Amino acid sequence: MAAAHVALVRSALALVALVAVGCGPSKEEIAAVEATLAEAENAVPARERAFEAAMAARESVQPGTRACPAAPRARTPRPGSPEEKLQGQIAQMEAAHGAGTVGFTAVVRPGRPLESPHVARVRDRVASLRKELHERPTGGATRDVVSIKRRADELVSPSFWGTDLVVDVEREESAGAVDVSKRTFRAGAASGRAYMFDHAKGAIVCAGEFDASSSKRVEFAAPAGGGVLEAYGAARVDLDAQSIRAARDSLRAVR
């Protein structure tokens, strides 16, 4: 009897352990995250309306002569220096991912829809966090509801709603004539206007006019025996990056 009793105790302990591993967040924890996500969503319409109203009237905005306080100009690095390469890499990341160093960045062209990068970020993150909150983990993993709540809290923090940099490309000649074997391409050029929208003020606070051209040297990763598509993609991202950099540097406080 003693041996049978010990076996039963071990089985019960094992069962308790299995239940503990399989436990997910409580209903209260899930409800708290959902409330925060709903708060983030509810803030979007008013922010979006203010942004759209300001952008609809953006052509009437005139830059003054004072520096834009929200976008201090970076020191121009020495050509060929590591600092110049680093700034180029940062600009390329902005062009590719829309995460600007003076806020969030949107590059817009004629006929293309314009959405506030902050609004887009909130919508994407809310959808992603909600999926993570309710999706059943695999492989014995557990949902980290504390991490999900922390990331949700960031979306409702007043400091989240900073500035959007809008790079309004009015004229553009795309980079082209790529020759991978000769390692050459025809440089592109772009010009237009730049606007900085401050969500706290609900208005465009800085503006400018810019001209940009492709870098003299564009790096990209190419598969053996190919690379044409990759080269065109790199040249396109580079021109966007140079447009972002020129637009940022052109900003002046509005009159």
Relevant terms:
about 260 residues; alpha+beta; 6-stranded mixed beta sheet; 6 helices; about 20% strand; disordered N terminus
What would you note in describing this structure?
This protein has six helices and eight strands, in the order H-H-E-H-E-H-H-E-E-E-E-E-H-E. It has one domain (24-254). Helix 2 packs antiparallel against helix 4 (117-134), helix 3 (82-97) crosses helix 6 (228-250) and helix 4 packs antiparallel against helix 5. The protein has helices at 2-22, 27-56, 82-97, 117-134, 145-156, 228-250; strands spanning 63-67, 104-108, 163-173, 176-179, 184-186, 189-198, 203-213, 252-254. Strand 6 (189-198) and strand 7 (203-213) form a beta hairpin. The chain has a six-stranded mixed β-sheet with strand order 1-8-7-6-3-2. The protein has 255 residues and is α+β, with helices and mostly antiparallel strands.
Strand and helix layout:
Elements: H1 2-22, H2 27-56, E1 63-67, H3 82-97, E2 104-108, H4 117-134, H5 145-156, E3 163-173, E4 176-179, E5 184-186, E6 189-198, E7 203-213, H6 228-250, E8 252-254
Parallel strand pairs: 2-3
Antiparallel strand pairs: 1-8, 3-6, 4-5, 6-7, 7-8
